Amino acid sequence: ETGVTQTPRHLVMGMTNKKSLKCEQHLGHNAMYWYKQSAKKPLELMFVYSLEERVENNSVPSRFSPECPNSSHLFLHLHTLQPEDSALYLCASSHGRGYEQYFGPGTRLTVT
Amino acid sequence: GDSVTQMEGPVTLSEEACLTINCTYTATGYPSLFWYVQYPGEGLQLLLKATKADDKGSNKGFEATYRKETTSFHLEKGSVQVSDSAVYFCALSNDNTGNQFYFGTGTSLTVIP
User: Fold this and answer.
1) What spatial distance separates the first Cα and last Cα of chain B, rounded to whole Å?
2) Of A18, A20, A10, whose CA–CA distance to A74 is shortest?
3) For the segment A67-110, what is each residue's pLDDT rounded down to a tens digit?
4) Cα–Cα dist B7/A96, whole Å
5) pLDDT digits (tens, 9 = 90+) for A15-34
6) Which helix (H) or strand (E) holds A43?
7) From the CA of B71, how many Å to the nearest CA of chain A?
8) Does residue B93 belong to the interface with chain A, where contact is any CB pair within 8 Å?
9) Alpha-carbon dihedral sign for residues B47, B7, A59, B28
10) Closest to B43 measured CA to CA, from A43, A94, A40
11) What is the pLDDT of residues A3-17, one digit of tens each?
């Protein structure tokens, strides 16, 4: 595998479910990011991890919980989501903050 | 604060037409500037970048020049193809503001045969 991979690519979950999104980067980068991309809205930065420390959390509801166990892996744990959380969730990584970011293909999440 | 403004879409062009997507920025100091492309059903891909004034980034026939005097980084291509249909995002990063990344809202391009 090369680049940034995300699993699953598609996820449908009920409002009471708990699920996790996984991101893995094979680029030797030190920073990882979660973004939310909704139709007709700008890209929203959710979380930033640098050297496995969370350095940014942009007022994201607590029903989204990130985890970065090492510099290559990033998870987004989801619980009791709302229909408005349906979106494309993109993971990215970079050599460091401010360097160009490399994106995964995204997970298309639908909350029913 | 820092920001990026890009032209509203959608843009529809015929194959082999010329493309310009405008992007202007607001930032202190000397940010780095980027263009990303997102094809349907995929994540964003870095298309090109420029890290200092007067630099020209280029890739796949696309070009953009970092113009500090006009705070612009317009994306251009001389002859578009159907396969260029995608959403294009302008972005900047600035070490003056903690290396945050700022994305524009995206411009959708459709090229018709």
Assistant:
1) 41
2) A20
3) 999 999 999 999 999 999 999 999 999 998 888 999 999 999 99
4) 29
5) 888 999 999 999 999 999 99
6) none
7) 19
8) yes
9) positive
10) A43
11) 999 999 999 999 888
B25-75 per-position pLDDT tens digit: 999 888 999 999 999 989 999 999 999 999 999 999 999 999 999 999 999
Residues whose CB is less than 8 angstroms from the CB of residue A40 and which lie 6 or more positions away in sequence, other chains included: none
Overall residue count recorded for chain A in this entry: 112
Q: What is the largest CA-CA distance in chain A?
A: 38
Contact yes or no for A90 and B44 at CB 8 A: yes
Among partner residues B45, B49, B99, which is closest to A103 by beta-carbon distance?
Answer: B45
Residue A1 scores a pLDDT above 80 = no
Cα of B46 to nearest chain A Cα, Å: 7
